[in-house]
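Subject: Sanity check before I submit

Could someone independently write out the structure tokens for this chain? I want to compare against mine line by line before I put it in a report. The sequence has 566 residues.
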Amino acid sequence: MFLTYQNPVYPYVKSPDQAVSAPVHHPLVIVGAGPVGMAAAIDAAVRGIGVLVLDEDNTVSVGSRAVCYSKRALEILDRLGCAQPMIAKGVTWKLGKIFFRDELVNQFDLQPAKGEKIPAFINLQQYHMEEIMVRRMAELDNLEVRWKNRVTEVVNGAEKVTLEVQTPDGPYRLSCDWLIVADGANSPIREQLGLESKGQWFQDRFLIADVVMKAEFPPVRWFSFDPSYHRGYSTLLHRQPDDIWRLDFQLGWDADPEEEKQPENVIPRVRAMLGEDTEFELEWCSVYTFRCRRMERFRYGRTLFVGDAAHQVSPFGARGANSGIQDSDNLIWKLKLVMDGLAPARLLDTYSDERVFAADENIMNSTRSTDFITPKSTVSRSFRDAVLELSRNLPFARALVNSGRLSDTAFLVESALNSVDDDSFQGDMVPGAVMADATVAGLRGERWLLDTAGNSFVLYLYLQDAAGLDRTVAEQLQLLASGQIPVASVVVSRQGAAPAELPTLHDAQGLFADRYDALPGTCYLIRPDQHVCARWRAFDLSRVSAALARATCNLRGERQVAETRE
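---
Independent answer below. Compare away.
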């Protein structure tokens, strides 16, 4: 059925580990080579962790599956070296239109703020994304992928995790210090360990149909409630690369999944939607039900769950893969510190705490969207339809229309890793927020602020004239870089340059000052996952050291600068 894409086949290679009777030990094992597992693997390897990835398959996803990737997920993937080929291949979009009974009743524009590198959203078939990530993994010498390696048993011990793995050549065993589970919504490892993922099933079915057609439709998200061609239900249309269009049809709970995905039943629905004269070919189709659920927590000893294995949401709003990629972004820098002995293992509990909070936020938004799209009672449907009717002319009603609140970044404002503000600030860059991007200028011309952060802790110091930086402050900033947990220091200024040892970025357009409410002397401490963890109106080495200690659950961190001096 696939007209535009041929799945690659990755070779199974017998590992030397299979010839050893005792389990061969690895520092980190990741089970699952989907987008989230691969993001975690690439991030770990980039940070210097030796990582082994096991996957029971030997190809990328079959069918387009996840297609919509958000700005935040792309920012993370950009740091990992994957986003630019995705953006080049994908369809960039920012406009969404909502129809009720064939009439436009609302629209939204997701245009990113001025001076940001990454677009609001792109559409790209999951198989293209996965191919890009497989190629990126192959570039990393400390990352190994074993295809056709299915994990059949897990023993989650106090000192290590032991795995039994089935291959075409039979079983073998291995062990690891840490296990990351990214084996999907029906996670076999979660089941093996006797762990549950609890939540709500939604009694409805949707048909996904990917069709190939030449069309002049713009790259706009079209969501239709009760259209004339599909009365009583909803539909969704998204453009993808290679002249492929994703169509979703709500079917109702009584629909027979096997019957509905037969081409002779799919094609009439597509033709009714696109018009009798539109030429198309069916590429791929599937029928799905959905649920919103999560595990109680995402860390169990030395085993850590990410992505759909940890939490699952309905597809409205593109919150699945995007959220999972943010899981890995939150986890890997913490795991690196723990593995290097620079932070206690309890730092990994904050991975669970922060991402459980984010999962609950996603589940709430996804559930609200699902309840609006698929009302479960006559009263709910009447309310929904009244909102849609009123939204034609009344702005207050448009705010109530919910065709899927699109994926956004959780502000971790309650995180135990944040330092409470001692000074007064305005704006959105509160402790727990993801740092905003901005166009800045460096020695080699224009740069993006986010490109200067992400692989370590970073302290940004804002000055009117960097040439006037106090010598003692400059020495202390350099001292931070040589601590046990290094903090890179960057001076942001309107003019002048700091000493050569300190990078200087010029805020020529004033975007940093505006977005960070920065006055001369303002400092921001940023985590390796680009979340703000502390900010001050003046630089103070002791406060930075204390904030770093809090952000790493590491009491010794308060003394690291003093130890370096000695």
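---
OP: Matches mine. For the report I'm noting this point. Residues 16-86+125-197+294-361 form a domain with the FAD/NAD(P)-binding domain fold (CATH 3.50.50.60).
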